[in-house]
Write a structure and sequence with these properties.
4 helices
Length: about 80
């Protein structure tokens, strides 16, 4: 089954264009997972996975996750 689409992904993508590379990685990971479940949990789990795999910096993960979360909120609305 394909992931559920975000209602306003264009707005989220426009917001994500201004994110850091780490923020963009978090945003892309959540967008790719689909629009189901609690957004905070999705962002946290995605950021944690990216940190553990060495793909994003641990020191800035929270800040980047919060910024990506704001863009994802726009995409979801």
């Amino acid at each position: 089954m394909a992931p559920a689409a975000f209602a306003n992904q264009a707005a989220g993508d426009a917001c994500a264009a201004s994110l850091t590379p780490d923020g963009k990685a978090i945003y892309a990971g959540v967008i790719g997972a689909g629009n189901s479940g609690d957004l905070r949990t999705l962002v946290t789990d995605t950021a944690r996975s990216l940190v553990m795999s060495g793909q994003i910096d641990r020191g800035n993960a929270r800040t980047n996750a919060e910024a990506a979360g704001q863009c994802l909120e726009q995409a979801r609305s």
